[in-house]
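Lab channel / #folding
Pinned by the channel admin:
"Please post every new chain as: sequence first, then the structure tokens as a reply. Keep commentary short and put observations after the output so the thread stays searchable."

First post following the new format, from NK:
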Amino acid sequence: MTLCLDLSAAAHERAGLGRYAASLAQALLLLEPGLTAFVNDRRESRLRPPLSDLPTRTANLPRKGWRLRAAISYFGGPSMDHAFEGVTLFHATEHLLPKLTHARSVFTLHDTAYLLFPQYHLLQNRVYLTLMMPRFLARADRVIAVSEATRRDALQFYRLNPEKVVVIPEGVEPRFRPEPDPARLAAVRQKYALPKRFILCVGTIEPRKNLPILLDAYAALRPHYPRLGLVIAGGKGWLYQSFFERLQSLGLETQTRVTLTGYVPDDDLAALINCAEVFAFPSIFEGFGLPPLEAMACGVPVVCSNASSLPEVVGEAGLLLPPHDVRAWADALARLLTDAQLRADLRARGLARSRLFTWEAAALHTLQVYQSVSPKSQV
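Reply from TO:
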């Protein structure tokens, strides 16, 4: 088969979707060296080796133009075959499947948040996904769901044949591990002006991440832990005004209280996590939930929401809490800050659980999906 994988999200550093595409592609290269890449607009591509060295196809369209062009192909417009000449299998990794007439396709469904929580999405994204997602899923030969929760949502909302949807969890990259080099940790502390002790959350600033709850819990802790910091690592997403309003109303906007690092590049993220005393992830909804898994792989104790797919990821290796219970979050964080035995227990549990999720396993199972939909003569 001639396999083409959509790496657009990785090329444009689109947070979770980009991490998924890049990590899967690198693991697949060990199994399928003939992989080719697709990037909707190569002019702004930030792919790194070995992915930047792949043969790459492109539509030479910015993201909005590419989304529109792909949608038109489903409503009487021409197919997108010209950009994929010779491709026999295309893997759509970021919720966009162009209409191809001469290639089989696999579609990764990351989540259905736009249906379950429409108020947390921009109108244009909600309209696009509501209109196009049923068409993408119907056209795909096989759908990969990144969690059982996502698979259940897909079957409920789109009435897909259960045999068409397979669950393949995401993995942890090897660089997420306990960092033994104190100089590396010191460099990251200095670069991001990190406090000596802090709670860390990694995620884009947007409503679904539920960050105001974390601000409230942290504010409740501050009288008892005046030198404790809160670090939020992630860029601005959308509809983030309420977060900054809460930050200001609680009097937490100074750097000595809450540190907003902005987007943290992959080269720094593992070391940043290693510097944290506790990792907190109060998200209301996740299709998978990679950040708490990466924190566990670094040996940092995790406090996590018990919503959607997150219990599948964290299991019994972290403290799972209702996402809107501020008192429960404050109490759990206080326990972890004061109970050394609990921190040690969660560290050991987290390290063990994180080993169950590897990109090598994800790539192997994904390759099996490719083979199941490819013409037998091409397998």
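NK: The domain at 182-354 is CATH 3.40.50.2000 (Rossmann fold).
TO: also worth noting, The chain has two domains: 3-171+359-378, 182-354.
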